[in-house]
Amino acid sequence: MIPAWLLPLVVELGKEAYDLIAKAIAAKTEERTAILARFQNALLALRDAKSEVHAALEARDAATKAAIAAAIAELKAHITTLVPATVPA
Amino acid sequence: MIRRLTNLAIVAMLLGGLLGCGWALFGCASGSDGVRQGVANAAVVVAAGYKALNTYDEAKQTAAVARARGGDPEGAYAEIEEYVPKRDKALKALDNATAVVESAAAALPLIDAGVAQSKDVSDWIAKLLAAALQVRDALAGAGITLDLEIPKKPTSYLNLAPWIVPGVGKTAGLALAFGGAR
After folding, report:
1. N or C: which end of chain A has fewer CB within 10 A?
2. Are A64 and B7 in contact (CB < 8 Å)?
3. DSSP character for A54?
């Protein structure tokens, strides 16, 4: 929209000036809307990524620790069963 | 005739103000748009960093579990013990960068209201750019490559305003461009 204070000037200069100004304002408004939308989307995506990744890493750490602990326990059990057979009495 | 020419000159100046100096003429500072774009750029970089870290971590831990189940749990344990502090350092850098992005976003109402000086605007852009660079370096420390295209002369926020271009990356499927003057 053309500001009210600019209208008398525009009326005096005719349709060409009106079109020119309206076009410039519309382009600027469109650009600004795009910037705002991108800004909001990027912020939301960042917040989502942060919380998702923190949760995923925490869960994965626990799972890996448990898996390695189980593998170590299994290995120890395996060694214990082997020792009596291999060590002479 | 002279009056008409004067009016035309005024309209030309107004248009120049609109197109050249931005939206300030109608109460919306172009500085805030610069910061908004800087925030958006940095947010995209940091979010991509989180995702890259997650993808990389999944691969790393899956390999460690496979190694443990394959008969070398001690080696897998040592590998994880060495890797996790590096990853956590990168995670901390991502969290810090997120804090910078959130602070810049929180400062926007002041910039919109015209309370902030142009120096403040430049400072925010510089902080956002620094945050993005720190994320890149921290990820590199954990073994992840994040391609950022930084403008050669990051002196003006107007030069830093523009767009991030997602593309094909070297590691974890990422490549981002930060900057490029409009």
Report:
1. C
2. no
3. H
Kindly list the residues from chain A whose CB atom is less than 8 angstroms away from the CB atom of residue B11. Answer: 9-10, 13, 17, 20-21
**CB-based contact B157:B121 (threshold 8 Å):** yes
Q: Which two tokens stand for residue B75?
A: 């080696």
Structural tokens at position A54: 């923190």
Q: What is the pTM of this model?
A: 0.71
pLDDT digits (tens, 9 = 90+) for A21-63: 788 888 888 888 888 888 899 999 999 999 999 999 999 999 9
Q: Is B36 on the interface with A (CB under 8 A)?
A: yes
Q: How many angstroms from the chain centroid is the CA of residue B74?
A: 40
Q: Which 8-state DSSP code applies to residue A6? A: G
**Nearest chain B Cα to A36, which residue?**
B36
What is the SS3 assignment for A59? Answer: helix
Q: What is the 3-state secondary structure (H, E, C) of chain B?
A: CHHHHHHHHHHHHHHHHHHHCHHHHHCCCHHHHHHHHHHHHHHHHHHHHHHHHHHHHHHHHHHHHHHHHCCCHHHHHHHHHHHHHHHHHHHHHHHHHHHHHHHHHHHHHHHHCCCCCHHHHHHHHHHHHHHHHHHHHHHHHCCCCCCEECCCCCCCHHHHCCCCCCCCCCCCCCCEECCCCC
* Tokens (6 digits) for B136: 């890149």
Distance from A27 to chain B by nearest Cα, in Å? 9
ipTM topping 0.85 = no
Helix (H) or strand (E) holding A64: helix A15-86
Contact B47 A42 (CB under 8 A): yes
